[in-house]
């Protein structure tokens, strides 16, 4: 019997020793015994990726600790820490600390506290973080993107070997001189084509840049700022492309209402030096005519007899209109609406506003986008900024009219600041009464917009995703409350820390919003 109990006792002691031994790991307990012979290990260690390839580290440093500093070690794609890629020393006052790393790499990161009073260093605390694709490409400057070639820039003397541009797998080997200067020109491109360039060091990607080449005029019609613009438009065949040189088009034969009943594209010659037009468009009956406006500065100050005007007015009823595309434009100072269709039975295929800035559309006698009975198949607002675009009126109005049809609304990656909207149910952000409507709003940043989202029973519940509402309480809540308001309760309400909203600079300072890519991409830097 005694032998049996002795044997059981030995097993118990052995198991206890194993249990104690197994507790020692990188993330061990804070106190190493009653005598406290070593420093406390960092607790709450957290790693967050910022700006693609920078890791931000933070942990809890107690005020009563005696740690002189902390040692941080990084190991690349090596959880065993066999090779230390980088070591930094950090004090508690420097937290959170940001460390630049290489892209597309999983880093094991360990931190220990070092004591200045004779205690042993703490045990390591460990965390991992995976960096995203590196971005060495710098912003383009005016003239870099041409019709058949592109100038690409990166920090001088970076370790890079080649550039690959797709589509077409156009490969440019970087010369020693180009590496030293951080500038290379890639040729062999096609005008008006979307490309993606990748900057490589061997097989490792160090940067990616999407761009669209400039227009290759080809069969387009070149218009000078001394030409009779109105006559050029009259003379153009349906489907023509008018390419306008830079300048301020202010002559009598260049300003006012442009009446169209044919498909037409009007665009600037250079995206970085857009022609300044003082016009509005009136669309009349035509064979499903499309209107495309690209790289223009459009100002609504030349209405007949100084009357307030809309940029786009659909004028004739029972007409099937084609597609409207507005891209790369700066639109400002229109007195009524951006788009107007006070018609009971017109059909419009689509309206897309992309990569544009729209400012001061004052909605005198109308709403910002104002369709009263007409059917718009698809309304898309994306990668754009809308600043003061509704004064005590609705942002999007779609009245009941044609039946058996669906209207779709998409707002994606926009920055919207409409301080002159009202915080009651008189006019909501979405004043949609078209019987069947599908609404999606995502990745968008709202600021200083007091209006409620909705006010109509027939308005569908919008699908919301990744939005932020600063000082816009009726858009992500219903504090008053307002009847039929359907706010986005999933959205955040962070202060975007705009650089200068009053001057139209909506550059975002809030790191969380930048990390989550909320708002017009032009302001996320």
Number of separate domains: 3
Poorly predicted sequence stretches spanning 5 or more consecutive residues: 1-7, 9-34
Largest sheet: 10 strands, parallel
Our measurement of the CA-to-CA distance between the termini, rounded to an integer number of angstroms, reads 78 Å
Radius of gyration computed on alpha carbons: 30 Å
How many β-strand stretches? Answer: 39
Strand-residue fraction? 35-45%
| Coarse shape | globular
Average predicted confidence as pLDDT: 91
Alpha-beta content class: mainly beta
Protein name: DUF4957 domain-containing protein
InterPro entries: DUF4957 (IPR032530), DUF5123 (IPR033427), FN3_dom (IPR003961), FN3_sf (IPR036116), Ig-like_fold (IPR013783), Pectin_lyase_fold/virulence (IPR011050)
Organism: Flavobacterium artemisiae
Pfam families: DUF4957, DUF5123, fn3
Describe it for me?
It contains 4 helices and 39 strands. The protein has 525 residues and is mainly β. It has 3 domains: 43-130, Immunoglobulins (Immunoglobulin-like), CATH 2.60.40; 149-212; 308-523. The strands form 7 sheets. The chain has a 10-stranded parallel beta sheet, covered by helices on one side. Strands 16-19-22-25-28-31-34-37-39 form a 9-stranded parallel beta sheet, with no helix packed on it. Strand 14, helix 3 and strand 15 (240-244) form a beta-alpha-beta unit. The protein is globular and about 85 Å long. Mean pLDDT is 91; it is low at 1-7 and 9-34.
Quick take:
The chain contains four helices and 39 strands.
